[in-house]
Amino acid sequence: MSEQNYLKKLLDGVEVEWTELGEIAKIKHGKDWKNLDSGAVPVYGSGGVMGYVNKYSYDKPTVLIPRKGTITNIFYVDIPFWNVDTIYYTDIATSKIIPKYFYHFMKSLNLMALDTGSGRPSLTQAILNKLLIPIPSPDNPEKSLAIQSEIVRILDTFTAL
């Protein structure tokens, strides 16, 4: 069973509000890393870790979403990192959504269906910001986050198998 099917099954029977990604996370661009010194901070591009530098661009749990290239490579990162311009990072409203829940949802999507590139696969902020994310128990934030945590626990276990 796919991750998307598991997610749907886990949300079955729970009140859900479909919320636009732009309302729960801000999508941020990456930056050039060529002038940074070597270090221990991973540098992410759409293909994954490209190297290591001495500075970070963000240091909170996030979901990295490729902008160009391998657009299906979604990453969950919970350590300081640097990202280049081929991959977005997300500044997540953690009072509304758990970053790892957001990650599992993004992994469940067919991102190639959102491709806007003519030759090289591409995702735009405009398209991503309109994606609808299922938020369980929207009127009770504490319950919503508890449900999301349980879903993450189950999906992490499923993924580890």
Structure description:
It is a single chain. With 161 residues, the protein is of the alpha+beta class. It has a single domain (3-160), classed as DNA methylase specificity domains (Adenine-n6-DNA-methyltransferase TaqI, Chain A, domain 2). It is built from five helices and nine strands; from the N terminus they run αβαβββββββααβα. The chain has helices spanning 3-11, 21-24, 99-108, 125-129, 141-160; strands spanning 16-20, 25-28, 38-45, 48-53, 62-66, 75-77, 82-83, 87-92, 132-136. The protein has a four-stranded antiparallel sheet with strand order 2-8-5-6. Strands 4-3-7 form a three-stranded mixed sheet, with no helix packed on it. A hairpin with an 8-residue loop joins strand 5 and strand 6 (75-77). Helix 1 packs across helix 3 and helix 1 runs antiparallel to helix 5. The protein is globular. The mean pLDDT is 91. Keywords: DNA-binding, Endonuclease, Hydrolase, Nuclease, Restriction system. Residues 15-160 form the Type I restriction modification DNA specificity domain. It comes from Salmonella enterica subsp. enterica serovar Panama.
